[in-house]
Amino acid sequence: MICLGIEGTAEKTGVGVVDSDGNILSLVGKQLFPEKGGIHPREAAEHHAKWIPKLISDACDEAKLGLDEIDLVSFSKGPGLGPGLRTTATAARSLSLSINKPIIGVNHCIGHIEIGKLDTSANDPVSLYVSGGNSQIIAYEYGRYRVFGETLDIAIGNALDQFGRETGLGHPGGPVVEKLAKNGSYIDLPYTVKGMDLSFSGLMSAAIRKYKEGIDIEDICYSFQETAFSMLVEVTERALSHTKKDEVLLCGGVAANKRLREMLDGMAEDHFAKFYMPKMEYCGDNGAMIAWLGILMNNSYGPDKIDETRVIQRFR
Ligand code: KG4
């Protein structure tokens, strides 16, 4: 079976083609870079609408396949920004109807984990999924994926990006903060773990406040990272010890951060667990993870049932 997957939960849209043996036949994408501020949901949706048709055709070309050779269409049905999700679902439905092939909507976060498992030899990990929109600690237990802990407010990537914008470091903030953190020293910032959940908004506001007070930016960046990543590692460690698993998987765009990898890897080692991370091209949002999860979900539950007439009427 060959599945074409369409991703569009945030500012990136991507299309991937994957076969049922887990071969990634193509992976193409386009990212929207906001001129100022963060991601505007309507602008992200317009970006997706503009690029998805070309990306579908590029993905087929790269896979050396015609549209008639696609057996299944999958799309990210959430979580994400509403307008972009609607655009992505509409594109997937249009494609599915026009090539007369089944469709399946899949969970974006689980897509990150499943492509992570496919690209590494991880089998049953506790996963730390950290991106611009999500911060979750997830593991498979008792026949389903369970969220063991997550942010109560903003995601870690969003906190780094907002901090970057407020302090003139630019967008996205994560990579610049990582660079500046290399020469910093520790200053006290709020550490907020509540039960198994996390909060990053107080930490971000305090970091911005310190910047306005004239504290050295390198010290703030270093302390921001140390504090936020310790919080994430603490909850992942607790999930690991609760589930008694022996694998830890890091995924999502913030996985690019070397300090986070080092801290998580160290924690895993302390628990005799193996640390895994997929290649960076599979860490950020991409269409291949949606296609691969489409195949897995279809194998387990079959495709979604769509009332075709209703869909056509609604989008005409
Ligand atoms: O998964 P992703 O590519 O897409 C979205 O969630 O939209 O993640 C993007 C996030 C941004 O918040 C960005 O600041 C963060 O990943 N990021 C980093 C680094 N590189 C990207 N955060 C920390 N350190 C980095 N080196």
TrEMBL record:
It comes from the Archaea. L-threonylcarbamoyladenylate binds at Y129, V130, S131, G132, G133, D161, G174, E178, N257. Residues 1-316 are annotated as: Kae1. Its EC number is 2.3.1.234, 2.7.11.1. Its cofactor is Fe(2+). In the C-terminal section; belongs to the protein kinase superfamily. Tyr protein kinase family. BUD32 subfamily. This is Probable bifunctional tRNA threonylcarbamoyladenosine biosynthesis protein. It comes from Methanobrevibacter arboriphilus JCM 13429 = DSM 1125. The chain holds residues 1 to 316 of 556 of the full protein.
